[in-house]
Specification:
Length: 191
């Protein structure tokens, strides 16, 4: 028992010596902002602290970076048809998040619109087009595409649906094939 106490005492003394002799960083070598109490740090101080923390970290892979920091995809301008602005826009949105607004035809309830847009979303997913769907009104939904170039392929599918009134991408409205807007348009063309 005595041996255990001696060993315990010796261990305690060693720990105390290490603790007391541990070198505290010199306050004269610290920058002004580092001498402050952490509760008094400003946003700029916190940014500096984060930068200092991340100094020795390896850089993230491009696909792990936030979207605004990712490098722009390379676009071969020689392959683009300047007479087709839609194709040019589609190429510039490749790899970027893009939202399309989809209007359901008629006066459906929110539940009916939810069911219809859910079917459309499933159809897009079955065609390997990943779209997140968010209802914003009773007859209106947002389809969000992680790869913006898929929005135009999805638009081509959606405007063919009987219950699709319109699809809006980048401010341009594409009326549905069976919508009242497209029938008004065809009536004007016949005159």
């Amino acid at each position: 028992m005595m041996k255990l106490l001696r060993k315990g005492s010796l261990l305690l003394v060693i720990c105390l010596v290490v603790f007391v002799s541990a070198k505290k960083s010199d306050d004269t070598n610290k920058p002004h902002w580092a001498k402050k109490d952490i509760r008094d740090y400003t946003d700029a101080d916190m940014v500096r602290l984060l930068e200092q923390w991340e100094e020795d970290e390896e850089p993230l892979e491009p696909d792990e970076l936030p979207e605004h920091l990712r490098p722009q995809p390379k676009i071969d301008l020689s392959q683009l048809d300047v007479n087709d602005p839609e194709a040019m826009l589609q190429q510039t949105k490749k790899g970027r998040t893009l939202m399309a607004f989809v209007q359901v035809a008629g006066s459906p309830t929110r539940d009916e619109s939810e069911t219809i847009t859910k079917i459309w979303q499933s159809s897009l997913w079955n065609n390997h087009i990943q779209a997140e769907r968010y209802m914003i009104e009773d007859a209106r939904a947002i389809f969000m595409f992680k790869d913006g170039s898929h929005a135009w392929v999805a638009k081509d599918f959606l405007v063919e649906q009987e219950k699709c009134e319109s699809v809006t991408i980048e401010g341009k409205v594409y009326p549905g094939k069976y919508s009242s807007k497209s029938s008004d348009k065809s009536d004007k063309e016949e005159l």
